[in-house]
Each structure stands twice: as C-alpha cells, then as structure tokens.
Amino acid sequence: MKRLMTVFVAVLFLALSCLGQTKKSYTFHGKVEAVKESSQSLTINGESVPGWMEAMTMDYKVDDPTVLKKVKVGDQITATVYAGDYSLHKVQVDSKAKK
Q1: Element (H, E) at 57
Q2: HSE-up of 60 (CA within 13 Å, CB side)?
Q3: Which of these, 39, 89, 44, lies nearest to 64 by C-alpha position?
Q4: Residues whose CB falls within 8 Å of the CB of residue 26, separated by 6 or more in sequence, listed in order
Q5: Per-block average pLDDT, block size 10, for the chain (99 residues)?
Q6: DSSP secondary structure string for all residues of 28-44
Q7: φ/ψ (deg, to 5) at 32
Q8: H or E stretch at 10
Q9: How far is CA 2 from the centre of its chain?
Q10: What is the pTM of this model?
C-alpha cells in the first residue's frame, strides 16, 4: 500500500508540473498571399523565425476567424506563433508596412 501511494504521489506531481508548462511563443511576420475563408486560413509568405521555422510560404489556420474579414492580400501582418502549433494567434495588420 505504501508503494502504491508513493507511485500515486509521483504521478500526481508529474501531472501537475506538466500543467504549469507553457509553450514557447515567437513573433511572426509575413505578407498575406491569399485569404481562404472556407478553410479559415491565410496563405502567408512568412519571414524566418529563428528557433521555430525558416522563411517560407504556406497556409496557416487562424485562431480568430474574424481576422479573415479584416486582412487583405498584400497586407503585412504580425502574429504570435507557438512551438508545436502552426496556427496564427493575435494577428495584426502592420499599418506602417509598405505593400
């Protein structure tokens, strides 16, 4: 019984420590190549994000579908991305960027 309780406490401790971990976030910059409302995604020509991804053009899901109504082809955007997640969060159009 004592051994079972020790294992239970160890598993509980491990589970609770994992809950406190957060994914590393990065700032993402890129140019909108296409807005795809049907798939709730944007095609972005993204700049390199050291530690996360090299520069490339690809489709990214957005965390907030209302962004798709605000963003236009040619817009420069800034967003937050997280390690292990290829969605764009907190997408903002860069108002000072040249198109």
Answers
A1: strand 56-62
A2: 31
A3: 89
A4: 49, 51, 52, 80, 81, 82, 83
A5: 59 50 89 96 96 94 95 97 94 77
A6: EEEEEEEEEGGGTEEEE
A7: -75, 125
A8: helix 2-19
A9: 44
A10: 0.73
